[in-house]
Amino acid sequence: MRHVQIATKTYRDNSARSIDLPTILIEHNSDTQVLEQLHKYQLKNKIKSRTWHNKLVQAVGLLLDYIESNQENYTSAKDFFEIFTESIYSGTINEDGLDPSGLYWLPKRVETANMLLSALNGFSDWLYNEYGAVQLNPWREATRYEERLNWMAQINKSQHSFLGHLDDVHEISETAKQARNVVKRRKPCSSRGNTKDFPENQIHNLLWEGFKNIRRNDELGIIDSHNWRDIAITILMHGGGLRHSEVFHLWVQDVFPDPEDSNLAVVRIYHPSEGKAPYDFKNPNTGKYVTDRESYLLLKYGLLPRNKYSAKDKRFAGWKEPRLDNDEDKYMHVYWLSKEWGYIFMYVWKIYMAKRLRDGIKDTHPFAFVSHSPQYKGEMMPLRTQRESHEKAVEKIGLVVGKSYGTTPHGHRHAYGQRLKKAGIDSIIKQRAMHHKSEKSQDVYTEPTVEEVTDSLNNATASLDNGFVLPMQTEIDVWFDEENNLRNKYLFRRK
User: Fold this and answer.
1) What pLDDT is recorded for position 454?
2) Which of the 8 DSSP states describes residue 188?
3) DSSP state of 56
4) CA–CA gap between residue 408 and residue 412 (Å, rounded)
5) Which residues contact 212 (CB under 8 A, 6 or more apart)?
6) Alpha carbon distance 169, 494 (integer Å)
7) Signal sequence span per UniProt (predicted)?
8) 123 to each of 38, 118, 135, 208, how far by Cα in Å?
9) For residues 271 and 262, what is the distance between their CA atoms, to the nearest angstrom?
10) Residue 95 in contact with residue 29, Cβ under 8 Å?
11) 344: closest CA among 244, 229, 263?
12) Bridge partners of 256?
């Protein structure tokens, strides 16, 4: 079955608003049409993220490709899905580099394959419930080993869920007795240490040398001497701990002097849709002030929040639903670490605003960071443009660009997390500073580095050599104690 991925606009009433989704166009019996069942399933799940829809479309596309290449090689849907799953994990190419099916799939990472199979499981279950279709991956009775793993996984999920105290332990126990016919593989357990923090001893070199503009035989004025826009973005990530994508939701109005110290910057990142809008624009239809940012963008500028554009649109900027600091106005407050960054940012911000003014940036949107090239002057700055600028600045000061070196934009957020850890900040405060919903989410940013583990073990070895005995507990003891504590906790809750 030939198919191609397309972008669709679906209008469900007479209004002008559409639901924009990627989906699949198929050719069947000499007729070209949208894969109707998939599209209906996507509309049912329209509030899901763009990533979710892209993975679903990718998974269904792979399934259609496999059906096309193996039409006579299976007798039942269940058997077909088992073989298909093996091809997703292991690929379709043999040791000689041949693949008679013509797919030439390489083995996928377990994490990627699991995401694709989860997407297909959900779609297949929906087809079963809505149309009575045969389930590709039906449920069966779990083995004792699977039941034990399921039980512990669900208890762990409940333990870290905001409403986990409402879970019924009996219901959890019953659910654990079921397993899919094809079970997803367990991904290798490892530390997240592949993404390091940006080296602290190089940050000022990056800002003032990496982003420095140089022109031969010409003395540049202060506005042109540096790339103040990208310096400001880097400070928000390094000194304020923001994610790279979050920076691009900043509006010009979201930065102002601290009421108690005019040289210290206060920065707020509002929710892209529901954040409070500036109190300066009235709805032409009602005459009332517009209160939310999505309506403000639509009515005043004819734009969408940046997270609602297609991922292929250069205006797109992701939003991971971080923990907000104000429920009424719905914004994140940027916490400077150290406070000095707030002073530096205010200095940089004033110069960047002067550059915007000098370059004649028109009021076509409220976003702070814009393009200054003649061809795209004033347009929303694409994330890719800043990544490339950051990469050039890193290489300019003699560093190698890469996650493992901490020299990508995300390395600055890791540096912020590491500073929180080294400062001995309380766990709850760290959670608030990094705007995590879960206290556990910060672990990836504050876990010990390879160097720190090595230093600790070297110190421990020195202690042993000097006759000191270290308290020790085996891994099995730790695991056994944790499992018993969780089990007893939920059994007590049930009583």
Assistant:
1) 74
2) P
3) H
4) 8
5) 225, 226, 227
6) 6
7) none
8) 8, 9, 9, 52
9) 26
10) no
11) 263
12) 266
Give CA–CA dist 390/29, Å, rounded. Answer: 51
Amino acid type, 433: A
Residue 427 corresponds to which amino acid?
S
Give all domains of the chain, ordered by start, each with its CATH number.
Answer: 2-137 (no CATH), 140-190 (no CATH), 200-444 (1.10.443.10), 452-495 (no CATH)
Report residue 283 as tokens. Answer: 């709805």
Ranges in the chain, pLDDT < 50: 146, 151, 162-170, 172
Q: Which of 331, 340, 129, 147 is nearest to 246 (CA)?
A: 331
- Cα–Cα distance between 197 and 486 in angstroms, integer? 34
The contacts of residue 81 (CB under 8 Å, 6+ apart) are: 136, 137, 181, 182
Cis peptide before 118 (omega within 30 of 0): no
Q: How far is CA 251 from the centre of its chain?
A: 21
pLDDT at 29: 74
* Residue 392: partners with Cβ closer than 8 Å, 6 or more residues away: 210
Q: Are 53 and 311 in contact (CB under 8 A)?
A: no
Q: Are 26 and 3 in contact (CB under 8 A)?
A: yes
- DSSP secondary structure of 413-478: HHHHHHHHHHTT--HHHHHHHTT-SSGGGGHHHHSPPHHHHHHHHHHHHHHHHTT-------HHHH
Nearest Cα neighbor of 207 from 433, 389, 418, 371 is 389
pTM score of the predicted model: 0.74
What is the predicted pLDDT for the residue at 163? 42
Report the alpha-carbon distance of residue 1 to residue 69 in Å, rounded: 9
Q: Please enumerate in sequence order all residues whose Cβ is within 8 A of that of 395, keeping only pairs 6 or more positions apart, or say none.
A: 401
SS (H, E, C) the chain: CEEEEEEEEECCCCCCCCEEEEEEEEEECCEEEECHHHHHHHHHCCCCCHHHHHHHHHHHHHHHHHHHHCCCCCCCHHHHHHHHHHHHHHCCCCCCCCCCCCCCCCCCCHHHHHHHHHHHHHHHHHHHHHHCCCCCCCEEECCHHHHHHHHHHHHHHHHCCCCHHHCCHHHHHHHCCEEECCCCCCCCCCCCCCCCCCCHHHHHHHHHHHCECCCCCCCCCHHHHECHHHHHHHHHHHCCCCCHHHHCCCEHHHEEEECCEEEEEEEEEECCCCCECCCCCECCCCCCECCEHHHHHHHHHCCCCHHHCCCCCCCCCCCCCCCCCECCCCEEECCCCCCHHHHHHHHHHHHHHHHHHHCCCCCCCCECCECCCHHHCCCECCHHHHHHHHHHHHHHCCCCCCHHHCCCCHHHHHHHHHHHHHCCCCHHHHHHHCCCCCHHHHHHHHCCCHHHHHHHHHHHHHHHHCCCCCCCCCHHHHHHHHHHHHHHHHHHHHC
